[in-house]
Amino acid sequence: MNHVFTQDTIIMRSVVVVVVLLGGGCEGVIELPKNMTIPAVFAFGDSIVDQGNNNLLKTLIYSNFPPYGKDFLGGNPTGMFTNGKSPPDLIAEELGIKDIIPAYKDKNLTAHDLPSGVSFASGGCGYDPQTSKLVSVTGLRDQLEEFKEYVGKLKGGVGEESANKILSNSVFLVVAGSDDLANTYYTLGIRRLQYDISSYADFLVASASTFLQDLYRVGARRIAVFSIPPIGCLPFQRTLAGGSLRACAENYNQAAQLVNTKLSFQLNSLNKDASMPQSRFVFIDIYTPFYDLIQHPLNYGFEVSEKGCCGTGNIEVTTLCNKYSGTCADVSKCVFWDSYHPTEKTYRFLVDHIIQKYIKRFL
């Protein structure tokens, strides 16, 4: 893996002091408790938090072309699966860390970027190892290996004590599960030959638990585990499974809620595990606020929630959402950017909600 580490490595020891003591390089929206420091944001999982890691992979799951990035830094498509900023960016911004969380595989990544966080996520990934293999993207196991590589470089630049302080005080985002249910289980149906939905939910939660414990062992302590959203209400799934009226596919939503319930219970167990002192595994319920937004968009300043802004909005995603697709006249009215991913405005609403609700649980 080729990253650019030039003279910045020499100054990392001074850079990290600023990061650790001040919490980053931009003014935060959220005022943290006096005894709380968050120097960095890291992300693992799928396309919701993929900052461009899929750009160089031989896969169909990528988005570094127009109209993706239409409203990002002057219309620059970087590989994020939305029109503007993504959740890692917005969370880092609100915490006052920095404006943009880079992809770990970004060829322009420098040593200066490392202490304040990167994303290892890969669009199309899931808790089920088969999910990433089906679309040739980076699975969670390989994301963890990249994180270990990152930790080695961080320790080499700032020293072990400072690196451990960064890791133990940072927030780690884990976003996965949607592709497992929507694609591997339902659309492609591969796992339905082996599991009923309850046993598949158990399998996903067991896989998630193993990953989270491994993440802890490498140095993570504050780990935000996002619930699966109401995948049956995604425009793509409405088209495939919502009938002639394109209603929300309620069996998909029920499956998401089943996994979420089991996952929340498992996180409670991990928090009580004496072998992982100082761990904070926090279950982030994104399902409830997102479902209410989709069902009542007018209540939140939106108008369209049953289709995306790109193309017809019913089926376009990744390479089907391209420069020939066209986009809606006013993206600010739309909950979804393409048929699978929310707009930056939607992400801002959800991020504001979760930070206000959950930030103190990491104390």
Question: Can you walk me through this structure?
Answer:
The chain is of the alpha/beta class and about 375 residues long. Helix content is about 40%, strand content about 10%. It contains eleven helices and six strands. It has helices spanning about 10-20, 85-95, 130-135, 140-160, 160-170, 180-185, 195-220, 235-240, 250-270, 285-295, 345-360; strands at about 40-45, 170-175, 220-225, 280-285, 305-310, 335. The strands form two sheets. The chain has a four-stranded parallel β-sheet with strand order 1-2-3-4, with helices on both faces. A two-stranded parallel ribbon has the order 5-6. Helix 4 crosses helix 5 (about 160-170) and helix 7 packs parallel to helix 9. It is globular and about 60 Å long. Mean pLDDT is about 90; it is low at about 1-25.
Tag the structure with descriptive keywords:
disordered N terminus, 363 residues, alpha/beta, 4-stranded parallel sheet
The side-by-side strand order for the widest beta sheet comes to 1-2-3-4
**What do the pLDDT scores average to?**
92
The secondary structure category is: alpha/beta
Shape: globular
Count of helices?
A: 11
Uncertain ranges: 1-24
Query: Biggest sheet: strands, sense, closure?
Result: 4 strands, parallel
Separation of termini?
A: 35 Å
* Number of E strands: 6
Q: H/E series, N to C?
A: HEHHHHEHHEHHEHEEH
Fraction of residues in β-strands: 5-15%
Tell me the radius of gyration.
Answer: 19 Å
Query: Helix proportion of residues, in percent?
Result: 25-40%
